[in-house]
Amino acid sequence: MPQTLVLASASSSRRMLMENAGLSFQAEAAQIDERAVEQDIAHKALCPGELALELALRKALDVSTRNVGSLVVGCDQTMSLGERVYHKPVDREEARANLATLRGRTHRLNSAVVLVSDGKEIWRDLSVADLRMRDFSDAFLEDYLDRCGDAVMRSVGCYQLEGIGIQLFDDIVGDYFTILGLPLLPLLSELRSLGVLNV
């Protein structure tokens, strides 16, 4: 009998990506506090990519405890500018400050995916995308914040590329799946290697 695939995420976009790829899976949100985990491992001074991998692993391990015999997919994404890791802004003022810091610079999305079975990590991948924001005016920034409203607080970068957020950028290097937080091509390749999918 094929191993059950479980996505350790409540993310609708990650579920959509896996569904669109034709994967048969269950989804279960991990019960971890990501900010508490970050504080707990702060002494390790992990780079933003390593932090994404650690959070993805913690999510998969948590869900694995409740899904014996299943293959659990854990994912996480960090957004970084150099070694600084950003989090979702709490209000418009923080969103404005973050966007002003990112303006005219290239930030990175670090997307991690791991596979865990019965509490053991069996595979991991880290894919990155580099996004260069254009040097937009203060007037554009205020108009952007007005048009986005509360939606600007729903993503760590204060943007959705499928909407008006695309107007923030000059250049993007990286694939669509990495930007959405699930490196799907490496995951599909590994699932084929493991015999979960047909070659």
From TrEMBL:
InterPro entries: ITPase-like_fam, Maf-like. One of its GO terms (cellular component) is cytoplasm. Its main location: cytoplasm. Signal peptide: none annotated. Belongs to the Maf family. HAMAP family: Maf. This is Nucleoside triphosphate pyrophosphatase. It comes from Rhizobium terricola. The lineage of its organism: Bacteria, Pseudomonadati, Pseudomonadota, Alphaproteobacteria, Hyphomicrobiales.
